[in-house]
Amino acid sequence: MIKILFIGDVVAKLGRQAVAEALPRIKEENKVDLVLANAENILHGRGVSADRLEELRLVGVNGFTSGDHIFRHRDIISVIDDLPLARPANYPEDIPGSGIIELDLGRKGIVLVVNLLGLGLMSSPTASPASCPFRAIDKIFRECNPSDYSAVIVDIHAETTAEKAALAWYLDGRVSAVVGTHTHVPTCDQRILPKGTAFVSDVGMAGAYDSVLGVTKEVIIETLMYPYPTKFEWVEEGARVFNSVLIEIGKNRQAVSIIRIDKTFL
C-alpha cells in the first residue's frame, strides 16, 4: 500500500506557511509515503523559484507539479532540470523542463507524476502553447510503460470541471489518480472510478483564508466593479487554509481510497 498526499495550489507566503503548519502532523498521523504539491503560485502568488521549492521540501514536500504560471519568473528556466518539478507535459518539446517526474520510494517502487494543462477557458497567454492533454498523455505512455511504476499520478491543471472529469474517465484503469488543480476552490466530488482511478475535480489551495482565491478581497471587488486596470495583491498575513487529498494505492496501481484532508488556521 502506498499513501500519497496531494496538496492543492500553494499560493504565496500564507500558502507556504499553511503547508509548514499542517504537513508534519498530517504525515505522521497518516503514515504518508509521498507528498506532492502544485507549486505554480508559490512565489509572490504567481511563479516558481528554487528557493521557495526548497522551503517546501524542508517541511516534507517531495515533488511538485505546476501550470500556466510556471515560467512567470524566468530564473526557473536555468535550474528546472535539476528540480523535482514538472511543467505541463503538453507544452512544446523545446520548452525547458519535463512534463513528468519519477520519485523513488525504495522497496515501494517508483511513482510517476504527470503534469498536464487544460485548454478549456484558459485565457492566460502562457497557456496558449499547450496542445491536447489527452493526446499528450497517450504519447507519454507510448514512451513510458505504466506497469513499470507502483503508482501513476496525473495533475490536470485546468479551468473546467468537465475537462478534468473527461480526462479522468479517459484514463480510468490506466493511472492511479487524476487530481485537478488551478481554480483554488476545493471540490467534494472525490471518488474511485470503476476501473480503479481516484479522481477529484479540484484539490483547492493552501493560502489566505480571508481572500478571493488568495488575492486581497478589495482588489478583486474593484476589478469586477470598474473597467480600470488593477494589480493583484496577495494577502500576506492572517488566517490560512490548507486543502489536500490523501490517496491510498494498492495492487496494480489501483486506488483503494481518496479522502479530503483540509485544515484552517485562524
TrEMBL record:
The keyword Transit peptide does not apply. Fe cation 2 binds at E40, D68, H157, H182. PANTHER family: 2',3'-CYCLIC-NUCLEOTIDE 2'-PHOSPHODIESTERASE (PTHR36303). Fe cation 1 binds at D9, E40, N41, H184. The active site is at H69. Keywords: Metal-binding. The lineage of its organism: Bacteria, Katanobacteria. GO terms for molecular function: 2',3'-cyclic-nucleotide 3'-phosphodiesterase activity; metal ion binding. It comes from the Bacteria. This is Metallophosphoesterase.
